[in-house]
Amino acid sequence: MEKKIDTLPLTSTHWGTYRARVTNGRVQELYGFEYDNDPSPIGSGIIDVQDGPTRISKPSIRRSWLENGPNSHNHLRGVDPFIEVTWSEAEKLVANELKRVSNIFGNSAIFAGSYGWSSAGRFHHTQSQLHRFLNCIGGYTKSKFTYSFAAAETVVPHILGSYRAFLDTCTSWESIRENTELFVSFGGIPLKNGQISQGGTGNHFQKKKLLEAFKSRTNFINISPLKSDLIGEVNGEWIAPRPNTDTAFMLGLAYTLYELDLVDYDFISKYTVGFDNFLSYLLGKKDGIPKTAQWASYICEIETEIIKTLAKKMSSKRTMISISWSLTRQDHGEQPFWMAIALSCMLGQIGLPGGGFGFGYSATNFIGGNFVIPPAAAFPQGINQVKDFIPVARISDLLLKPGTNFEFDGQNYTYPDTKIVYWAGGNPFHHHQDLGLLMKAWKKPDTVICNEWCWNSLAKRSDIVLPCTTPLEREDLGLTPRDPYIIKMSKLTEPYQDSRDDFDIFSGIAKEMGVLDNFTDGKTKEQWQKWIYNETREKSLEQNINMPSYDDFIKKGWFKFPNHREDVVMLEDFRADPINSKLNTPSGKIEIYSETIHSFGYVDCPGHPVWLEPCEWLGQKDKKYQLHLISNQPKDKLHSQLDHGNFSRSNKINGREPVYINKIDADKRNLKDKDLVKVYNDRGSCYASIVIDNNLRSGVILISTGAWYDPIDPSIPDSPCKNGNPNTLTPDKGTSSLGQGPIAHTCMVEIRLAEGEIPSVTAYEPPSFI
Ligand SMILES: Nc1nc2c(c(=O)[nH]1)N[C@H]1C(S)=C(S)[C@@H](COP(=O)(O)OP(=O)(O)OC[C@H]3O[C@@H](n4cnc5c(=O)[nH]c(N)nc54)[C@H](O)[C@@H]3O)O[C@H]1N2
Ligand SMILES: Nc1nc2c(c(=O)[nH]1)N[C@H]1C(S)=C(S)[C@@H](COP(=O)(O)OP(=O)(O)OC[C@H]3O[C@@H](n4cnc5c(=O)[nH]c(N)nc54)[C@H](O)[C@@H]3O)O[C@H]1N2
Ligand SMILES: [Mo]
Questions:
Q1: In this predicted model, what pLDDT tens digit does every residue of 5-29 receive, in sequence order?
Q2: Which pTM value belongs to this model?
Q3: Per-residue DSSP letter, 402
Q4: How many CB atoms lie within 10 A of CB 288?
Q5: Contact residues for 721 (Cβ-Cβ < 8 A; gap 6+)
Q6: Which ligand is closest to the CA of 633, given by its number?
Q7: Looking at 15, 18, 117, 708, which residue is catalytic?
Q8: Active site includes 115?
Q9: Which residues partner with 615 through β-bridges?
């Protein structure tokens, strides 16, 4: 008899918790966890690719590298065939190369920022594994902050004293439901994103919470180029300014509040510093340009009356301003966050139930949760002796410009000279902007090593490819501070062919290098998992939370942290007592003007929020390309993960990535549904299939990220991508000297019918072998 679903073994992913039916050594089906309100269909994407030709079966070495040694024919990365070797040969090759580079050039020549999401599972967290291993041999050059919101991670601590602390304590949906009358969301609340929670989630609550708020009292406003960034069921108003003009829009709102005497000066004087300095900019005393609603209207292409009406509404109602993370991933991405906080200060509702601002409701599931944050222990990474780093998105600059200087958050640093790139658990050929430039940069290092489970665009462009397991093939703990559920992840199937857990891969290399005991600390994988659990359990006791013993937890398979008894209200304590609960800023208050940032002297990020023209946008004079490309997060996968699976591929059109376009823009170019088109600009191009969709602002097109990079000629850096990867088009530039964040959402392109025969997609085929 078939087992009941709720007795099947559990697994956890960034897109949710599932129970798995396993027969004949394969996972046949994944069922949403019985406590999940809204399980994600993304999970099914792994079923058909858990084994088979896209899996990496053995350690594989690029031919020229193996035959001629490091730094040989680097331009053939992605072209050369691979040669399979045994694990002991691979371990020796990696160990010798690490020793060579460390001895001659020092460990700063090993770049292992290795940004990326890898898989859920606290112990097998790939970056922790890689970093701990490299710290055992003297360290590595790291990367700082995330692609998600690097600009906010840099600027918000200057304004509020921390970013992460407030990200994790956004006002809970319960407080919104009971109090918020107007929910103004810049970048919307696209539920496609709420499928994801970093480290996993037991229950997708976003949709339910959104509907509850709507039914209770909340009016939603979606300020975004895409109508679909808010679900139709909540009947929201759609305002679609030109992309990247949100700061101007908010300045127009701020000016209106001032003009109509709707500013809460009590709040301003009690809780903030520097308003007067900002006000003189707002009123045009600094640059002769008052930032009126009409001024904003001209920049945003939104009627003045809409801006003025919204400002009045915001001040007369309990208002929550939600600011999407996407607003940081654009040129001058520091500004919209700073300006949203300044605008909230003017409204004076920060710290009140359902009022103030929040950082991206539904960028992921966890924002707006009201659970006690689990004090989740982690696999210790050790101490990195190397001080060099890059701001996360400066990878091409690092490789292309060793020895040159860069600015970051008020200081000047130097890029080290990189000889080895070691990537595990991320994919720069997915996440980085201007892939043509990255292709050029990729020729520079002597050696590229990666741990991967599938032959994706990174594995194909590496010299040494070490095959790792997927979470289906190993035991782990689903544990994260961003979700109340702790999940016992079961080993469901045996590792595919010769693949190994990252821990075992690094143990093998560590042994070869004489640091095995340092790396493992004498513990097995099971012992480490138990250690992480018990550390977390001990810390939980301090909060009077009784987690079950490890053995009881393993028996039951999961544990849930309780909810807070009261709703979470961001900055409530600060509002109640700004002296004893002062912020960690120089003034202890919210810094609408920051003397610190001003003192850096950055023209691209002065001492208070300002409107700065992006490097490319619809309002640019004499612009060469007419369409603004939005490359948002994909609805059917996480980044590039499982793009090769059935679920993602079922959403392709004629086998290519869809590009969404408004009918007006399509008609102008004579384009019809399903046409194969070339999307292009000076940086590169890709092919995609047309979907006509009037839920896009005209002048804007959309290609979601995630399609595996697949250039027609992999030996040419700007060869068109057959598979529709938008990062062939996006610019590689920092948000500003302050944050140096990525700016994927700032990108102008043109589009036309594809000419001639376009070669078919080969992204999902393994490379050739000798
Ligand atoms: N144009 C554009 N580009 C963007 C964005 C955008 O909005 N627009 N968004 C950016 C953002 S916010 C982000 S976070 C990044 C995401 O970029 P990444 O996090 O780099 O993207 P992923 O596809 O999640 O890469 C994770 C990789 O880890 C591998 N992996 C999974 N499990 C394991 C494991 O157990 N061991 C090992 N060794 N590997 C494993 C997967 O196969 C996959 O290749 O992309 C950024 N890029
Ligand atoms: N399904 C799925 N969910 C995900 C991910 C995934 O890969 N797949 N990735 C996760 C990760 S790593 C992250 S960081 C978060 C990111 O969360 P977000 O940053 O919120 O994600 P995006 O989808 O890039 O952007 C949300 C919306 O912002 C709008 N937008 C873009 N530019 C502008 C602008 O200039 N102004 C305004 N007002 N709106 C704009 C776009 O229409 C877009 O749909 O998503 C997470 N959730
Ligand atoms: Mo992200």
A1: 999 999 999 999 999 999 999 999 9
A2: 0.98
A3: T
A4: 6
A5: 435, 684, 685, 686, 687, 707, 709, 710, 711, 712, 728
A6: 2
A7: 117
A8: yes
A9: none
